[in-house]
Amino acid sequence: MADEAQNVSEYVTLISNDGYKFVVKRSAACVSGALRRMLDPKSNFSEAIENKATLENLNGVVLEKVCEYFYFHEKHKDSKDAPDMDFPPELCLELLMAADYLNSKLLQAPFKSMYSI
Amino acid sequence: MSTEPAELTLPPLPPRTPSSTFIRHKKRSYKHTTSSPCTSSDPALFSSDDHLFSGAENYTGESRRKKRVFLGAWWDRSGGSGGERGIRGKRKLRRVVDSGVWMGSEGTEGGEDEDEDEEGVVVDGGEKDGRNDIVGGRNTNDEGVLVDSTGKPWVAPVEIPDGPLAEAEKIVQRCVEEGNEHVNLSDLLLPHLPATILHPLALLTKNPPTPPTTYHPLTPNLHLFLSHNALRVLPPPLLTLTNLSVLSLRNNKLTTLPDAISRLQNLVELNVAGNRLRWLPWGVVRLVREGKLEVLRVWPNPFLERAGHVGFSRRGVAREGGGADDEGVSRRLHDYRASSRRPWQPTPLASTPPSYLLPTLTPHASSPPPPSLTPPTVTHLSTRTAPNQPPPPPGVTTGPPPLMSLALLTLLRAYGADPSFPTLPSLLPSDSIPQRLMRETVKAGDEGGRQCTVCRREYVIPRTEWIEWWNCVPDGLGMGVPVLRRGCRWSCVV
């Protein structure tokens, strides 16, 4: 019990396939359904125990933008009139695939409507 | 002597270029005077003294012979001389010379009109020394045949006209040249209308008024008639012609109109009768409400109807042809006009409950299917009875748009005009969600972009969708027309 509580940290580490590490807030990263399930403290995934997720499909440049979006989403979570975030156009195809990957597990989950990223 | 005053009256004509043209014709005929005497007997041909072969002896010899032979009509002589020479292209060439088409048109090279020869091979009769002008890299060989750089006979490139598209292009070009605002492309059975044909219309300017006493804008009020064609979608480049004031798409095969039609802010008259439209885009209502649209013809079309509502059926339109009915219609029209004291404004009549869509374009489990995905066999939709819209399902109603939507929107903004943009979906894994969404993005690009009908933000993936029936047709007797409305997020419902 104490062990579990200790593992629930405020920040998690996301590692890209080329070795870049991004330390982001857990609440922000949990916008993504895939990350939420990976880092769920109730699960016994190694990611949840180590608070560290390695994303083999994303390189550092894309993951940086994804993390940026996590915080953008966190900031505008409750606003009804959130602005659009700008992305470099050349990254958009990869971001599209990344967004699909980060939500893919959620589609099989019961909360389909939470598809948010 | 008498020619000199005539020349004085035409100062801008440069005297040298036409004369050199004539010299070539004269020279060519000079070679063949023995058998084919049918050159022009215009004295101007021989009046030049700046050429090697226009000496006095040539002049007299040729002109005498020509005078004797050439008194008859040239086509009477064609049989004998043509058979003797065996070169039919020659005779055609002569006819062009005699017709005077090329006379006095400065800037035309002597060899240019020969390129128009239908047979493609031009036999040149001139002596090689006197005819060593090379036009466009071509040359003449020893027999006087125009040859290209490889030695083969030079054949004029013939552009094969592409049926109705070529016809349309011709009409558009003529209108642009004449400054004609009425562009009539009707009855051409055009399946589509490429940008190369429509873009010249953007350059069309009116002819200035004569005399130019007052200042008039030369911006045209374009009238574009595309009735009786085979268009299935509105040609996207049409949306850039903001000068359009009349657009007729009557009797085509349109199934949808893009919402971006609201960009044609100067549109006064729109005719979409006789298509396959099941609804109108919200942009049409915006044009009536905020634009200048005054005449809107939408019937007949297989519009969606309200379930349980006795509406304006298509059979009803067909029946309304008799005199008594006409009178009834005009009386109702009069009553209707009299009853509206303030300027007429379109009014909503009914609405279906909104359908909430996931970012993957699938409807939420608890909401009705989106109208745009219903099969064409569905002709009636039930309207909502409660005054307020049903609340969105529990989920995300606030917050920024999903990352996917933002990425797609950025892609569309950055590369939407690129010709290779429609190939992007094929780069993505097949049958995946990104590919499906990318296809939708390409579709949005073809529609000229999408704008939320509630908050007017740009979007790609619709999140809410419903049909509203609007009394939006001026003088439409209060009949409701279905209008498709889409929102960019779940909070965008009315």
TrEMBL record, chain A:
Keywords: Nucleus
Entry-linked CDD domains: BTB_POZ_EloC
UniProt cross-references to Pfam families, sorted A to Z: Skp1_POZ
InterPro entries to which the protein is assigned, alphabetical: ELC1, SKP1-like, SKP1/BTB/POZ_sf, Skp1_comp_POZ
Compartments (UniProt record): Nucleus
GO cellular component entries: nucleus
GO term, biological process aspect, one: ubiquitin-dependent protein catabolic process
Occurrences of domain SKP1 component POZ (ranges): 11-74
SUPFAM superfamilies: POZ domain (SSF54695)
Main subcellular localisation: nucleus
Family, as annotated: Belongs to the SKP1 family.
Function summary: Essential component of the SCF (SKP1-CUL1-F-box protein) E3 ubiquitin ligase complexes, which mediate the ubiquitination and subsequent proteasomal degradation of target proteins. Controls sulfur metabolite repression, probably by mediating the inactivation or degradation of the metR transcription factor.
Protein's name according to its UniProt entry: Elongin-C
UniProtKB/TrEMBL annotation, chain B:
Comp. bias regions, Pro residues: 388-401
Record Pfam families: LRR_8
Lineage: Eukaryota, Fungi, Dikarya, Ascomycota, Pezizomycotina
InterPro entries: Leu-rich_rpt, Leu-rich_rpt_typical-subtyp, LRR_dom_sf, LRR_domain-containing
Composition bias, Polar residues: 32-42
Keywords, alphabetical: Leucine-rich repeat, Repeat
Region (Disordered): 1-48, 102-149, 336-401
Name listed for the protein in its UniProt record: Uncharacterized protein
Gene Ontology terms: cellular component: cytoplasm
Biased composition (Acidic residues): 109-121
Domain of life: Eukaryota
Keyword Oxidoreductase attributed: no
Biased composition (Low complexity): 1-10, 347-365
